[in-house]
Amino acid sequence: MPEERITSSQIFKKMDPWGAGMAIIAMTVVFSALLILYLIFRQIGLRFQSGKKKKELIKQGRFEEAAKLDDAHSGEVYAAIGMAMYMYTSDMHDIEEAVLTINKVSRTYSPWSSKIYSLRQTPK
Question: What 3-state class would DSSP assign to 17?
Fold first, then answer.
């Protein structure tokens, strides 16, 4: 007489006949994933609201506090950096003559490039 083999699904059915444990585990996984996504999106939203806070402070007349929030440089700083980069890259190049030489090279005949061999003839 062959022995009956007990599968893992049969063991699980004995331990949890109505499936309540499986349902609780599934709901816990789903809700914890939703909670993690909520926290991630909330942090992203808070990071992008820094500009709104500055505008609200300006509307209220608190210019000093708004200036403290703005840690970006003025346009003059960016213009100076751009000009320095342009001058640096333009000094790197020597003045070169643009001479372009084109020589025609004759190729030997090759049947691999012949179109007649790539076309198929229909059988008669």
Answer: coil
